């Protein structure tokens, strides 16, 4: 009989492209991963992987088994969720992957509320700018607090359920004396030095496309995905930044924020979980806490400070 853990290892290697990367993802040594794959190869009696330069690729048999492995792992998780739903108790551990830009306004309040309501739940929070939906499908995380900019197509995997949290607009951020807080036309930023994310990022693409729709190509004096750096540059009067509202600490001194009057740039923040027919009480508790924190966000941009 096939071992589910070995099948999960095969799925991770296929997604990561190498034994070393898979080992890092699974928290194992490369030798342990190699042993699991060798045992799986013995189980089926045919090679599942082949060298492909510095990486590995699936053989035809490997691709066939991977398709079945996805369904088998999903069925096992479905069974676990069904039992958890009957027990109706929050488990002991869970892992949340979240964007750093959501920590102040959503993640921290949600985790504080979650800890008060479910003190026995040990929640690990991974803060990363990298897309985590693949990690969700692989089972290395349980809940993802992710984003999707409105100019991009929805590429959510079919095995993932998404719960919208908040529509998060980008605000114009300047030094405290750099404006009056009233809405700013995007075209009025054409002559300003901007602090913007790299164009390869989703946010960078959203800013670039919106500026082009407004009739100009932005002058990117500072290019960084670090929102703290963007806010620091704006506070120093060196640049104007376009920053998601939830990424701005409302207590931060020395800055002024204003909404865009035209060509709005928005991202949808969402909570994502693996799709099962039965609601898992543990992931459900995490998503509920995220929703509650998102509901506490103001409907409008922060007033000038």
What does this entry look like structurally?
Strand 1 and strand 2 (55-58) form a beta hairpin. The termini are far apart. Strands 3, 4, 5, 6, 7, 8, 9, 10 and 11 form a 9-stranded mixed sheet that branches. Strands 1-2 form a two-stranded antiparallel ribbon. With 305 residues, the chain is α/β, with parallel strands linked by helices. The chain is built from 9 helices and 11 strands. Residues 300-305 have low confidence and may be disordered. The relative contact order is 0.16.
Number of DSSP-assigned strands: 11
Stretches where pLDDT is under 50 for at least 5 consecutive residues are 300-305
Largest sheet composition: 9 strands, mixed
What is the residue-mean pLDDT, rounded to a whole number?
Answer: 87
Compute the gyration radius: what is it?
23 Å
* C-alpha termini separation: 65 Å
Tell me the fraction of residues in β-strands, as a range: 15-25%
Q: What sequence of helices (H) and strands (E) makes up the elements?
A: HHHEEHEHEHEEEHEHEEEH
Helix content: 25-40%
* Anisotropy-based shape: globular
Class per helix and strand makeup? alpha/beta
Give the quaternary arrangement of the chains.
single chain
Number of helices: 9
SSE map:
Elements: H1 4-16, H2 19-26, H3 30-44, E1 49-52, E2 55-58, H4 60-87, E3 93-98, H5 103-117, E4 122-127, H6 133-138, E5 143-149, E6 160-175, E7 194-196, H7 202-213, E8 220-223, H8 227-235, E9 240-244, E10 255-258, E11 266-274, H9 281-295
Parallel strand pairs: 3-4, 3-5, 7-8, 7-9
Antiparallel strand pairs: 1-2, 5-11, 6-9, 6-10, 6-11
